Structures are given as C-alpha cells and as structure tokens.
C-alpha cells in the first residue's frame, strides 16, 4: 500500500538526498517535507522534483506544535523521519542554546505531535507506523587513534562531548523514553560522517573543494590526524529506508562503513582530485594551513555496522575512492549552487571562523 512520509529537514543535505532517493525508488509514495529553511536549508536541492505531485513542501518549524499537528490532521502519516537539526559542531560551540532548542525541544515536539496523532485510546498504535530519529555516531563520544580495533556499537555508552552531540544524545534519550513509556514505535539510526551532493560548505569536504578551486587556504584543525568514518550519502539514505521498513521496533542501528580516514588524508585527496578534474596545477598542498584546533575535538569515530548488516542486509555500496571523485565532480558542475549557498550570511560566518579572506 502507498505510504505517506513526514520528512523533516528535507531541504538540507541528507534530507534532500533522502527525498530524491525515495521518490526515485518508489512510484507510489507521498512525501510531506517540513523544513524551516534555515541557512542550511535550500529549495534548490529539490528543484528536480518541483512539479512532482508526490512531494509537498511546507516551510515550518519542528518546534511549532500547531503547524506540525496540522500536518498530521491533513495527511495520514505512516512514517516520520526526523532529520531537522542544527548540525554543525563548530556552530554549537559558539551557540549551544540554538542546538538545545531545535535538536532537543524540536524532537520532543515531533514526538508529542506523532503520539497525539497515532496513539489509540487503549494506548496501542496502528500496525506499520514508525517514527525514525536520524541521529549520529557522535553521541558515543570519541575513540582513540591508538586503538584502531575499537568501534562504536549500539551498546556503547552515550558519552557526548560537544554541545551538538549532547543535544543529539538528549534527543535520542527522549525518543527512547517515548518508546519505553508510551509504546511508541520508534527507531534510532546513528550514522557516521556523510559526504556527497548538496552538503553545506561549512563541513570539511565541500569546504575544502570550494576553497581549493578558488586557491584559498585549506584550514586543517590541530594536527590533522583526527579520524572520521566517511559514508556516501546515498548509502545512508538506503539504510534509513531499510530501517523504516524492516528495522525491529525500539532498536538502535549504527550506520557506517569501516572507511576511516585522518582529516589530512581527505584534504590531500581533495587537492589531488580537484587539481586533476580542473587541470589546475595551482591547486597544491601549499594551500594547506594548520589552524587552531576545535575545542573538545573528538579524536576518532568508527562504526561497527555488524547489526544493520546481520539484521537488514545493509552494507555501504560506494567505495570512498569512487564517492569522493563523484562528489568533487558534482560540486565543480554545480558552481551556481555553491555561489548561491555561499552568498550573504556565509561570508560573515566564514570570516569569523577562519579570518577575513
Ligand atoms: P543540514 O544542516 O544540512 O540540514 C538540516 C536541515 O534542517 C536544514 O534544511 C534546515 O533548514 C532544517 N532545520 C533546521 N532547524 C529546523 C527547524 N527548527 N525546523 C525545521 N527544519 C529545520 O544537516 P544534515 O547534515 O543534512 O543532517 C541531517 C540530520 O542527520 C541531522 O539530524 C544530523 O544530526 C544527522 N546526521 C548528519 C550527519 C552528517 O554527516 N551530515 C551524520 C549523521 C547524522
Ligand atoms: O559523525 C557524524 C557527524 O559528522 C554529524 O553528526 C554532524 O552533523 C556532521 O557535521 C559531522 O561532524 P564533524 O564535526 O565530524 O564534521 P566536520 O565536517 O565539521 O569536520 C570533520 C573533521 O574535519 C573534524 O575532525 C574537524 C575537521 N575540520 C573541519 C572543518 C570544517 C577541519 O580540520 N577543518 C575544517 O575547516
């Protein structure tokens, strides 16, 4: 039967990739896409589905109880997928309150509205409905680069360090509590670092591609040896689709691909591939600038995706070597998109973070 999805944050990086992936994969679904369109949300990401009647865009705040309740009244929602969040660690260090407000209180509001719409008088929920919280591996804290055989598993204790990860961990605990207390059908996915099209250039990979192309300095935090576990965004979208349809209710699923790389490796790879793709020999490692480290900088993230592999048959499909080339080619072919998102407030942000360019 045709399913109706309430997707929040679907004009952001992963959310827009998810909306496009789902509409491409399934003919008979409807997606109600709620996004506040903060600096990170961009309707251009959804331009290719502008006239697709299966997609309805609503500009609204996930903290707005009336607006969200109205959507549950208007549509018979089967699945809620909560992507909407303040997502950038550096911004959370400057303004933690915004992260508590959107990520924690926004999630609580989404849970309340979902419960009000779905819970029957006897406390049961209709078969097949599900609320999925899109979370992050950062809630587990940090691993050591000296112990490369240790990984985050679903039973690793929550131990966030940044205001961003603290807000995501807190939201996760509310989702768990709504499952435990009200019997709400919930899942939580905790994914590692994503890369791919439509990522806002405050994040490492698009920032480095954009700077390299313009011969601007490439700011590497600290010693450049912090490790992240990179996953191509479409693989994350596939995992979310699988957890929605087949994940066991109440479970947490870690999503990641044993693709751990030190930041300096990523930056050098981007230099090499951007130079190759543009034929520009001025894009060299001389652009690298080691800058002051991020406060409380987590050293290493690494996911063991054993559970999602064993239960749902999910595995990352895009090799990093292919994904990074695809990603660089995408940004080089979408300069208007980059110009659009880096105009206005971005410059102010960038200059404050890295010094006036
Ligand atoms: P993003 O910053 O690119 O997009 C967030 C979207 O949420 C934007 O479109 C923004 O307009 C919207 N939004 C923000 N506040 C809102 C509000 N109050 N109401 C409605 N919409 C609002 O983020 P992303 O990188 O696409 O991340 C999406 C989700 O995935 C987040 O929950 C994040 O914590 C999680 N996540 C991200 C990664 C990653 O590597 N990017 C990895 C794991 C998990
Ligand atoms: O692990 C999942 C998380 O990945 C998500 O939950 C977050 O929403 C997402 O932003 C991302 O967090 P990170 O902090 O890991 O990503 P970011 O791209 O900001 O940084 C990646 C690494 O690169 C990190 O070690 C910091 C470093 N870095 C980042 C920037 C922006 C630099 O060295 N220089 C930079 O200019």
The DSSP helix count reads 12
Sum up the overall morphology in one term: globular
CATH architecture of the domain at 3-199 and 230-259 and 300-318: 3-Layer(aba) Sandwich
Strand content: 15-25%
Number of strands: 13
Low-pLDDT stretches are none
Mind telling me the CATH class of the domain at 3-199 and 230-259 and 300-318?
A: Alpha Beta
Structural class: alpha/beta
Distance N to C terminus: 54 Å
Spatial arrangement of strands, main beta sheet: 3-2-1-4-5-6-11
Can you give the mean pLDDT? 97
For the CA atoms, what is the radius of gyration?
20 Å
**Main sheet characteristics:** 7 strands, parallel
Q: What small molecules accompany the polymer chains? A: nicotinamide-adenine-dinucleotide, 2'deoxy-thymidine-5'-diphospho-alpha-D-glucose
Q: Write the element-wise H/E pattern from the N-terminal end onward.
A: EHEEHEHHEHEEHEEEHEEHEHHHH
Helix fraction by DSSP (H/I, runs of at least 4):
40-55%
Fourth-level CATH superfamily of the domain at 3-199 and 230-259 and 300-318: NAD(P)-binding Rossmann-like Domain
CATH topology (fold) name of the domain at 3-199 and 230-259 and 300-318: Rossmann fold
Pfam families: GDP_Man_Dehyd
GO molecular function: dTDP-glucose 4,6-dehydratase activity
InterPro entries: dTDP_Gluc_deHydtase (IPR005888), NAD(P)-bd_dom (IPR016040), NAD(P)-bd_dom_sf (IPR036291)
GO biological process, one term: nucleotide-sugar metabolic process
